[in-house]
Amino acid sequence: MRAxxxxxxxxxxGLLQAGLAALAVLIGGHLVTLPGPAGEAPLALFVALLGALxxxxxxxxxxxxxxxxxxxxxxxxxxxxVTLQIGPALVVTAFAALIAxxxxxxxxxxxxxxxxxxxxxxxxxxxxxxxxxPAVYVLICALLGRIDGVVQPWAWPLADIDPVxxxxxxxxxxxxxxxxxxxxxxxxxxxxxx
Length: 194
Hints:
Blueprint: H1 2-7, H2 10-27, E1 31-33, E2 40-42, H3 43-53, H4 55-62, H5 74-100, H6 105-124, H7 132-144, E3 146-147, E4 150-151, H8 163-184
Antiparallel strand pairs: 1-2, 3-4
Helix pairs in contact: 2-3, 2-5, 3-6, 5-8, 6-7, 6-8
């Protein structure tokens, strides 16, 4: 397990996640004007996207290229590693919620939702391009998520809903996707036969 924590860069990514969470707590409530009819989006959404994207490269790089090792379940190990990597962000936002109020929990909802999309994309589509799934989602939200001033249901991170509900929705989605990751593992392209 210690080798897996080093290989997946849990410490450095955990520290980065804590820093991004602190940034989201401090300035995440500011609105960013988006091009087109979308209007505005909270800066926390883009910080959460960065938080999700920093996890993908270490996870893919450390994934076993061959599945001959039957001693450890690589999918379960990857799910544990992702949980450990975002743990510091959850701790920072929990402390901030105690001090500043529950509105900072919206960041947790956004981060966990984007990680759920990324993890599901890595399992179902391709681990190599799993980072594209949350990035494309945020892009589509930014361009088409608000029509005539109304936030579309699929673009809920743009909506002004209760932050606790956002955190619970994101956590539930992440739990489901990590269960999928633990049971099926990442989808990697098969190497050509030699």
